[in-house]
Amino acid sequence: MLDHWQWRTSAVRRRGLRERLFGVRLFVLSFAGLIVVGTLGLLLLPGLYTGPRLGLIDSLFTATSAVCVTGLIVVDTATYFTRLGQVWILMLIQAGGLGILTFATIIIRLIGRRSSLDVESATGSGMGIKVGSIGILLRSVLAMTFGIEAVGAIGLWLSWRGPLGAGPAAWHAIFHAVSAFCNAGFSTFSNNLVGWRTSPPVLFTVGSLVVLGGLGFVVLNDLWGRFVRRRKRHVDTQTRIAVWTTAVLIVAATAVFLFFERSVALAGLAPVTRFTNALFMAITPRTAGFNTVDYGVTSNPTIALTVALMIIGGSPGSTAGGIKTTSAALLVLGLWARLRGHRHVAVGGRTVREETVASAAALAIGGIAILALATFLLLLVEPARAVQDRADFVRVVFEVHSAFGTVGLSMNKTGDVTSAGRVILVGLMFVGRVGPIALAAALANRAARRAAFRYAYDEVAIG
Known about the structure:
Layout: H1 2-44, H2 56-67, H3 77-80, H4 83-98, H5 100-110, H6 117-127, H7 134-164, H8 166-181, H9 200-215, H10 217-228, H11 237-261, H12 271-283, H13 300-312, H14 325-339, E1 345-347, E2 350-352, H15 354-381, H16 390-404, H17 419-434, H18 436-443
Helix pairs in contact: 1-2, 1-4, 1-6, 1-18, 2-4, 2-17, 4-5, 4-8, 5-7, 7-8, 7-9, 8-9, 9-12, 10-11, 11-12, 11-13, 11-14, 13-16, 14-15, 15-16, 15-17, 16-17
């Protein structure tokens, strides 16, 4: 009887593991499918270009950058594409930002039918939502997303209707509002937002959209329930960590950029404008990709800090990439707890599971390993002259971190990357969007089972 019970328990565990793996695999495949659709559209749809059509590699690169909300470009979005082509890119950004399965689940629910648990599991894995809560949260996703984007578009239109005209300003405002909230970094201006660096309202609006998109749907919904609807007495621990980490990173990075760039990239600007640009520089490296300065001329400390911000990225369940703010915060809190002789990590009177801290460490290690490998491979496929060019090495490192963090910033390197290098960057953008853990789980054997035993403990020296 006991053997039968153990067999049943093992079977349930295997079935649950297979369902989770299938859900994550479906989430990953949804982005891959969307990239294929975007690439085919760029290759086949008429009326997208003002000049020659993009080739296969460049179409794949552009579609991946849009779907994975990265913002790296090999051609100028403002001049190479027609209005229809820009609309196609914007559709890919919006679908990639929310996740195509999110749209599918919402549509199914709107017509009165229930999506399968596999689809709900896949949707939840992309947004940081538990399966049981998907039905509740998805009803607010569309309203939250389009509401924030609409407010941002109106704010940008008010700033741009004078210099650009009411009609053109409307399209630019809509495009940038969606691109900013989805943390994409695509722009319909040839110099991105450099031309608006002296317009604090524009930078504040775009920056606010980036921050809100980087916090994620779960955090925004939690904050809405606590401070607007007042249905909750306290915010969740995840929300607390995400908000505080985001705030600390923005404030600290703004101060650093103000100090190091005051006589470099921010030289000659009025105090208010200099502060606004430093604040914008602190916000965008965590996966937004908009820029008001040329990163090819910024100081070395600024480049180093920007790369660090790229690695961290946004919050779980957001449109941002990186290892996520919660992972970075748990690593720091875990180290601080160990230095104080504490075994557990506590936040706001709540203890974080050791498994969660271990997962954060594994994600960080995996991300660093991917970045190191991609940097090595990209250096291998670049022209021979780049081997001895130390400045080009910095640009390659910057480009790799930008792709993996789905940031989109560049030190004027993307256009010079070889076709083989662009394929490597495509893979990095894809992995950075779906997440290293999600990709690993999707590729895992569906028949994998959790081991029912462990080996004896042994001691290993560290440090």
